[in-house]
Amino acid sequence: MNVLIGLIFCLAFILGAYTSVIPGWLGETMVLGVGFAIAMVVPLIWRKAPKRWVWLVAAAIAGFASFYVQFRTPQPQSDDISKFAPASNVAVQGKLLEPPSLTRSDRARLILEVQGINQQVETSEPQEVFGNAQNETKPKPKVEPKFEQASGNLYVTVALIQATGLRVGQSVEITGRLYLPSGANNPTDFDFKNYLKRQGVFAGLSGRMLIVKDRASAWGEWWIKSRMVRAHVTGAGMPQGALLSSLVLGNRAVDLPTDLKDTFIQAGLAAVLAASGFQVSLLLGAVLLLSRDRSPKQQFIQGCICLFAYAMLTGASPSVLRAVVMGLGSLVGILTQRRSRPIVGLAIAAVILLLYQPLWIWDLGFQFSFLATLGLVATVEPITKRLEWLPPLVAAAVAVPIAAYIWTLPLQLYNFGKISPYSVLANLLTTPLVSFATIGGMISGILGAIFIPFGAAISWFMIPPLHFTIAIAKWTNTLPGAATNVGTISLWQLLVGYGLILMIWLVPWLSKRWILGIVLTLILIFIPNGIARATQLQVTILSAGEVPVMLIQNQGQTILINSGDRQVATFTLLPMLQKVGINQIDWAISTDPQLAFSEGWKTLLDSAMPIKQFRDAGVDVYPKPYQDLIQALSSSNTNIKRLQQGESVEFSPNLKLEVVNASPSILRLVFQDTSWLLFGDTDLKAQQLLVDYSKPDTRKPQDIDPDPKVQQLLAERRKILSNLKSTILFWGGGKLMPEILQAIRPTVAIASANSVVDETVSQIYGIKIRLYWTGKDGAVQWTPENEIQTLKDQQDSRSPI
């Protein structure tokens, strides 16, 4: 009973920490109210339940956890560096809090503890001096920099070469552009602002110049770590050496090549790259094996030394600290000669880590680590029993990845909307190789810290298992449906899914009918999203700078107008397609061959996003990159066609595209009674054409072109513009002629731009037209009910209150 009470208190703290998302005292009040209700009801239903005081204390613990997380949430101080942002040219002094790491744009990323800021940075431009009728120049006199007191942490990016050799604790001065981090501008964008906020960072600096103020310390964990990495890379080469260092020290210790990292993530082997319980178990197991003849006290001391040293070398990530705390629990059991309880140890480890850093409650690494471990503790044995037809060793090896996959799948779908169907197979095939390589990497690392050639020699023997591990990951990604976008699930699906998994584990009746429970779980997770996609009709205007990018989801069909550049495709389009469950583009419409509009198509193809139909509505002359794109599309069996003036493309009975003008491109999308008029280019020529088409034909017969095709085309254009019932104007935010608004008579105007010309804004508001632009409102979504909702509106509607 005492163990049960302790477990209830731990779970109350964890659940209470999650209620901190509710602001103010409302969360604590709700927790206390629910806890009081549970204390009154549960003893009446469950006869062997703990007494009421236990539930009341648990409610108080949960309320304290909610308050504690909010209390420990970082807030900017009065002299925080963010108070000086934005600024185009400043110099900031401070100390490095973390070792440099590599961004996807191949720049170095630093976290700086700010000590001062200089807002009056002098430029090095020459100054003219006049004398003796002759002009000469000399440098401006050097002004002593004036640094003001500032505090807080700062996110910094600098050129990679400038950060080479920097160590934690070094003082530096960085000159660059100070900015405030931006939040998500699209429904599935990464919320960079919130991510930094949880680390106590409220401003960023794009650095141009870095000056080191002092030398690095001659000794530290970085020295050992760097020698271990050098031994691995020297012996195994690249990328095997970097992978070996990642297996031993985690991906924080070494910057893996981006393509290699993406290969492992797509194959469902992301856990291999992170230091976690796997490495800690191998390390602790080796220590206990080597010290099996020693006393329990000596085993405890040696085990603690190894655990603390490993945590220091790997950077003390949540997954490592979780494993270290549980490892300490096992050592205490050895010391006291008592049997450890893994579930209780896992709960205690969670509480200890949250007391140390409560914001880890929102850290995905923390969540995945604990869920995977819970799956191993709770599910490996039942799965192994059901695999009794296999040899015991094989059954246990198969049960481990299955258990971890089951318990992490709902959380993975909630956050990413993507599954790796062959993850269990990939983990099963790589586990022996990774285990052997990790042990060899630890040995080579220890020897390398003493003498690098010794470590490099051992690392050389690790090349075959590392090579085959990489080969298996690449092979897995070539299998059909290797990475399937199923779309993110809702919060209720996440909670119900884990509720069913817990019931299969804890309820004997459902445990015996585990197949039924799993089927119900899969139905609740996958079926609602599938039905929604099959019936959904929605238009999304993405926030992509000055480029109009439109994503149309039409009852299972996907239509994409423009792809943006490579950055838009990589950081906006691909995550969105993944999270809404799109695995192919049915129709791709390109309105402009410029790189800013079309470079992303190649990125989509390279990311295994097939394009079935490609329609080009651009100019006659294509630049070389666009010609290469057409060639790549042809090689991927995409149906390519040039849209002609006056042509119509019917996507479905309720949705079609009409080409009002080819160059400059003016397109019209028709959804039943609603029309979208899309300007590919807002120059005066395009606008004047549209104004002319909307006017009655007053030409004399002798002035009319006798060609029947020309007459038919003009008639079609006028027919299109005369049938505009409820029109939405979509353009790039440039200046609009006053006549264009009168000709189109839109009910809504949407600009894909960071800003809109003031004169145009006044004109639109003057004639009572609703105006949205992506730079201010974020992405804009439309449904057939004529409901327009911006990203800001959606964020407000998702408020906890």
From TrEMBL:
Family annotation (NCBIfam families): ComEC_N-term
Recorded topology in the membrane: Multi-pass membrane protein
TM regions (residue ranges): 29-46, 53-71, 267-290, 366-383, 390-407, 419-439, 446-463, 483-507, 514-532
CC terms in the record's Gene Ontology section: plasma membrane
Pfam families in alphabetical order: Competence, DUF4131
Subcellular location: Cell membrane
Origin superkingdom: Bacteria
Keywords recorded for this protein, A-Z: Cell membrane, Membrane, Transmembrane, Transmembrane helix
Domain DUF4131: 33-208
Protein name per the record: ComEC/Rec2 family competence protein
Coiled coil start-end: none
Residue ranges of domain ComEC/Rec2-related protein in the record: 247-509
Lineage: Bacteria, Bacillati, Cyanobacteriota, Cyanophyceae, Pseudanabaenales
Keyword ATP-binding: no
PANTHER family reported for this sequence: DNA INTERNALIZATION/COMPETENCE PROTEIN COMEC/REC2, RECOMBINATION PROTEIN 2
